[in-house]
Amino acid sequence: MATVDGVRYAADGAVATLTFDKPGRSNAMDVPMQARYGALLRQADADAGVRAVVVTGAGKAFCPGADLGLLDGIAAAPPAGGGGHENFRDVLAAASVGVPVVAAINGGCAGLGFVIACSADVRFAAAGAKFTTAFARRGLIAEYGVAKLLPELVGQGRARDLLLSGRTFTAEQALDYGLVQEVVPAEELPLRAHAYATELATYSAPRSMAVMKRQFEREASLTLEDAAREATALMIESFGRPELAEGLASWNERRIPKFPDR
Description:
This protein is α/β, with parallel strands linked by helices. The protein has 12 helices and 10 strands. β1 and β2 form a beta hairpin.
């Protein structure tokens, strides 16, 4: 599929890949690009043939954040306060869709791009890739819910360090912080991310992954007892689902499972 509004979509079997591709601006985002990203993720989520998604960038950057030209315009003529600013739903689309999303961070990842990476389910990074929250160094605040997302990934102390300082750190440090799950040579990143997404699409039940994503969001705010109670109800419900029967049959028969769509 051709690049539209700075985002390219391609499907390979059960894995879809969304690529930020805005070479003149190093994949920096404007509002149409944000909207396109959110729309494509929701499109992939609605496609029964897609069971995992990879999000990455073209060239040497993943996404360096919002286009600074856009920020210049906002600084000159600030928008009105109050409600109606709903584009955060596009930025955080990876967290709201049922399909698992793997961020393949191939290069510079900052600001808005950093939030997008944090909202993915799993993050792989190219060796040497640079990260920064950047907000405090641009006179901004912790945008799009990252003050909630980041502590859940790296803990309160490290999240406050990264947000308050806005300092640059490497993929290797991100791995040490727990922000990314793997660091691989840059030339191996696309294949590694796609292979991981293919493993999810092949061996994990789509409905199980979608339910788990809802659990991650909901149970984080519950007491352990309430989380266990809700999980038990979901477990009992799953006993009557075809996914369990297929999961047991494929295990006993030593074959690849054929799970139904979500």
